[in-house]
């Protein structure tokens, strides 16, 4: 498993998250009156236990989906809406506040593995049909995977599954013949051949690669306009940039699908309201059937007050999502670990939290490893738990050091709060005698800039574990691990951390065997050692609040989606 | 909005009669008699002084435009529903105009330093346009023939461009070209790129007017006289022609300044002009709008808006008065 | 007359060609690498190169420019080798960001801009010309002074301020108007005429405040000038009623400059009211352009800039022609 491949969905999730500018209240719900000190970060599901079918849900969004094509998507919003019109071999099923669980979807189970761990076999359920009534076969699934190899056509094709398979040189169905890594001995069976054993393989086949695509209906890049449905809904009309309407797919058999309750008759997506409009509409309950898929529930900086209003609170679904924000320190330009540590200690992380909207929008953290991960050991750090800066300690560290006078902080230009984080850092670093320049980076190019030669000295980034949020490795390795060959830092290692010994250890641990607990413990130990050199400073574990209309039922915030989970939502009449 | 940012507004219809110094003196006499003009002049001078004295005034206040105050204790009160906004949101002895929500910076300090930035951009870009417009317009009118044709076509081209759209796309290009250099530190880059962009796109209309004026002047006798003495073309333009269009240019310049102030505000508002932490009035508008703050806290919107409207209004009225004073025909 | 039209339209095409070349050059050498923008967040260097090829950005500058021009003449092929797609005429390319056909995007955005422009132009013409006439007829009186004063303030109100204040007061505080929705595009749609008006009303007002003020001034000045002209004096001497003089003779002669200005303003506005669309989140051309410009979506920015230039130039020509018809004093040579 290479580090690059693990990243796809995760970074997309961050990107989606990066949309909202949010600064706001830090007043957590005050449990004082009823005596109970409730966990302010416990997930809240709005009106759960609803089972009536019918009605229409209005989904308000500030932008159109980047794509609806499962073969060309590493976007978290597409994964969320995709639950409605495509199915995959397995599925990452959301539970509010918890990392998603891998469950069978088109397949009868989560897969049978061969003894050497290099072959996985799946059997399809009976009664699966596309929206036109033709049966779904294993060949359709294979074709779906083949498409994602045509990366010259689908620039956003998810690659994590493909890079685990044996057939590296395959170029896709348009310019190549047949993908040998996948066999389809009959219409119900599909067999995957892997380069090396991969315990988390069932999670890989939950990716949109394995969504079946009928070859005859493959319209290439135009497939996004009407992807052929294998799920409970199908595209009724799609006016790019304005409106998408999904209606029931009569050929979907609920008996084959315990994961999707498919309550509403239709979903209407309004695709370009401004976030300000969306949040106002939701808060004022102007449309009782409305929800949003925008990150942070489209909340605006000034909306925080409204969230504490009892009436609005009752309509607010909330929960953690598997995203941790960090401030990356470029280890190639700030070489001295002591200088990095001083910078880390001087940061006012509490003030940064305020820029995110306060405690309501995330918990201050000192590590990227969360208690939700399997096998994580105790994390040691000198960062203050309450986020207050330790200026004296920081200044002491810098005595006699060669301290840089000028540093650059880069931020995605679309987001007010990331600029504000820079303003806070500017003040903090001034105390250490460092001038910080704030440099806006076009949001669309943000992550590729961080990966390129124009990486600033300091940058904010977010990491979402996506469907793998419960695995420590899936956070440590991509963020701080070495490249594929282990000789330099990995592609999504934004701080460019590379240490001969530690990076080698991580490289070796990639192929190691063991239970998830054992491996989790090993990865978190290495993480501790790496973090002693301060390549990055963890700031917040994001917590999403999403207000829904008063008719909306079963609204839960997905740990992976960071928005209302469309597979379970319902609407009262 | 394209109109304000780019197209010289209809005041351009003015038909000032151009002449030399004596007329300026008469004009001043007339302006002195108009109370509206005098109040406008006072506001303009006051704003300029306010900008120049920003460090002094902010020093007296004891604040600084960039110091953040993000302690949760301070900002929590924003977020408690039902309660009025905390007192420090509004003018107090400590913060004369209150503080920004979110980052908690002092609004008075930002307004004062923002005045510097907004006025510098407006004045310098006007200067660029006036120099370009006068020189090119005079050259076109004076030389005629091919030179006139080339310059006139370029003017047509500039007038046909959708200015705001172009400026919108070019400003970030310029900024990124200029940044990465030693100049990038501080607020030099955004200011310089706005000056260049606004100045460069604002000259065409003035040039057309100057050309028209020069065309009529060219026929006058004293030019012929000077020509017969063998005066060189360019020194003729500078010594004889340009002084004769001073009146028009002055009126247009006065009216171009508010247009450029508005344009700066518009661009910064759209996020392509002056950027935080550098304050400007447009940037302050942007901050008030970002995250819907203005709905929660109208004061945040009011502070830069009032300064902006007051200044633009004063310049506009002054321009009107100046035009009327220089044009005896338009006696309103 | 025919040759006049030919000359004007010929010059218009030439000007557009120059505009297209300049815009193309400017954006081509812009800062944002469109390939890495199109490649998205997960983007290794080799994927950037693939995206570059797929978008045709690996080709030399002039090849790209002529490929673009060819789309204006007939259909062209777009996309990565092996997966080319036909892009029907008029082809303005595909968005780097969403792979949408730019022609479709513009066709989608244009109705919003039209809705905004039509209402705003009507509003400011009625208000502006009406009050301008009134002021001219009451020249020097209190009404005149009041109107002139108000128009001075009007021209000094920047759109961001007017727009935000309108939203704050009428949407946020009073709740008299809803937030603008993108579901209502035309007055003849499902929602009905009333909903269309409510949806765009505040945006119209924001534009109309600024423009009416300008129209008041120009109307007033023109009417005063016309009133003092000889033929008006003659009419008065003939003993025609005041009302008749004003409306039959005065307005007709004084309206030419107003038509000119109206044409130019409408042309400029059809290219997208950038600020107004942004503030009221009307997804028209200006809104789309801002989004494209900030994300390096070259084909979209190009297309909208050119379309806007086209409108400006086209209305210039229209105005010239209208001039010839309206004002008897102008003769086409």
TrEMBL record, chain A:
Keywords: Signal
Skewed-composition ranges (Basic and acidic residues): 214-223
GO BP term, pick one: peptide transport
Signal sequence bounds: 1-23
GO molecular function: peptide transmembrane transporter activity
Region feature (Disordered): 210-234
One term under GO cellular component: periplasmic space
Ranges of residues in domain Solute-binding protein family: 101-471
This protein's record includes keyword Cell membrane: no
Protein name in UniProt: ABC transporter substrate-binding protein
Lineage, highest ranks first: Bacteria, Bacillati, Actinomycetota, Actinomycetes, Micrococcales
From TrEMBL, chain B:
CC terms in the record's Gene Ontology section: plasma membrane
Matches recorded under Gene3D superfamilies: MetI-like
Positions of transmembrane segments: 36-60, 117-145, 157-175, 187-206, 241-261, 299-322
Localization terms from the record: Cell membrane
Membrane topology term: Multi-pass membrane protein
Keyword set, alphabetical order: Cell membrane, Membrane, Transmembrane, Transmembrane helix, Transport
Chief location category: membrane
Protein name: Peptide ABC transporter permease
Organism (species): Glutamicibacter uratoxydans (Arthrobacter uratoxydans)
Automatic annotation (TrEMBL), chain C:
InterPro entries in alphabetical order: BPD_transp_1_N, MetI-like, MetI-like_sf
GO cellular component, one term: plasma membrane
TM annotation in the entry: 112-134, 146-177, 197-216, 251-275, 303-326
Source species, domain of life: Bacteria
PROSITE patterns: ABC_TM1 (PS50928)
Domain ABC transmembrane type-1 residues, every copy: 110-319
Keywords: Cell membrane, Membrane, Transmembrane, Transmembrane helix, Transport
Gene3D superfamilies assigned to the protein according to its UniProt record, in alphabetical order: MetI-like
Record's keyword annotation contains Secreted: no
Topology relative to the membrane: Multi-pass membrane protein
Compartments in which it is found: Cell membrane
Keyword Cell membrane: yes
UniProt-listed PANTHER family: DIPEPTIDE TRANSPORT SYSTEM PERMEASE PROTEIN DPPB-RELATED (PTHR43163)
Family affiliation: Belongs to the binding-protein-dependent transport system permease family.
Protein's UniProt name: Peptide ABC transporter permease
Native source species: Glutamicibacter uratoxydans
